[in-house]
Amino acid sequence: VHVEAVANLVGRAELMAAVWLFTAILLARAVRRRYASGRATGTLEAALLGAVAAALLSKEHAAIALGLLLLDDVATRPKAAAGLPWRDYAAVAALIAVWFLIRGQIDAGQSFKAVAPTFFHLDTLGRVSTMLPVVFVVVRLLVWPFDLSPDYHPLVVERLERPTLLGLAGLLLLLALVALAFRAWRRNRAVSAGLFLVGIAWLPTANFLFPTGIVIAERALYLASAGLALGLAAAADAIQRRRRDGVATLVAVLIVLPLGLRARSQIPVWKSNRDLVVRALATHPESYRVHEAAARVFRRLGQNDAALREYRIALELFPLDHHLLTEIGGAALDARDPGLAIGFLRRAEQQGDSSSLTQHSLAYALLELDSAEAALGHARRAVASGPRDAAAARMLAASFVALGQRDSALAVWPAFGGRGGRRFERWLYQAATYSALGIADSATMAFDSARAIAPTDSTARRQLREARAIVDRTLPHPP
Predict the structure, then answer these.
(1) Tens digits of per-residue pLDDT, 420-459?
(2) Helix, coil or strand: residue 214
(3) Rounded-to-integer distance, Cα 263 and Cα 243, Å
(4) What is the 3-class SS of 276-296, one letter each residue?
(5) Exposed (0-12), middle (13-18) or buried (19+): which is 258, by Cβ within 10 Å?
(6) Closest CA to 443 of 400, 473, 405, 417
């Protein structure tokens, strides 16, 4: 279950968050010891806040820091001993609240609006009904992780609209684990704390309280597995007290060795997107996201027919993902089939997708079919949805050009800059608009302005090459 966290680049955020959260717990213990002896704790308390801040900057689920600190405090504190000062709990809570506010300002709240496609058009009952059987998946991944998948969307995990018997069994299992955690509190604090740790670590992505961008991800269970490790350590300790030391060691080896070998065997799967897709197609062909990923690989390779074939399989497996429909529309445009693209994009629109990408893709397809008036309407909606989206502004300018509205086309780019659009993209695409209108000198000047402030990444270099080719077509050639 740890393979996705250690072998996949994005999963390393889980490692970083876990390291900083455990650092915070150790620092909190040091604060408690010093506080109980009457010594100064200011430096350690500052370090504690720094560790929580570093965890939050690593991964948003580190917001559970407050719960973990409280759990460790009450689980390891001797009777009648002083706990972590309340000012530290208040400071951590304030830090988390400030972090949420700042992050919300930076990304306009988009991170917390993302919902997994499995939950599209599902009410709370449907979401909870879908997640209750996932309790068995979580337990299996923590205890017996021999069937792994990079994706747990339909049909690896079934989307449900109403409760099922399996869901009821999942609820009973969940309640039984909670009851066991409370019952074990007095008899074996390590086992109890371990169960509570699993619950606290899983809660942010459990989708019971609110929907998230994942149904379940193996990397998201990295921190939760620390709770299982506590339980196993308590079991080994009990064996050691009742048997010889060698028995406990033997049991540990029999558990660690096969799981370690399993983890080692899975690392090459994450070598590249291609390797991951090939493996996932073999092990979980029922996952629509796996076929979508395969289509993306084909699309990058320029194999549009193969990409469309995989996209259609993904759509057949799960037809409720409007992002998938928009992506298929883009693939159809790559294949120079605007009529096919419009069909998929209209379906995405009917499912409630009013995103800038869907709208400007529709505008592009309609322009290809010489329907400039209809394209203009979608381009306007694309700009309204994504005011700083350069592709949306391009389609708006192109629609005005196609309709012969020269002044309106030229006015698009100053307005784009006024809405906060990137200066590089403003000048670059303004050059293309001047070129389309046959204004060669202005096109050259706009292109030179874009080149002067161009980023150094490969995308910007490609955009400059494409714009240069467009501008060159408008320049007068010597006889």
Answers:
(1) 999 999 999 999 999 989 898 899 999 999 999 999 888 8
(2) coil
(3) 30
(4) HHHHHHHHCCCCHHHHHHHHH
(5) exposed
(6) 473
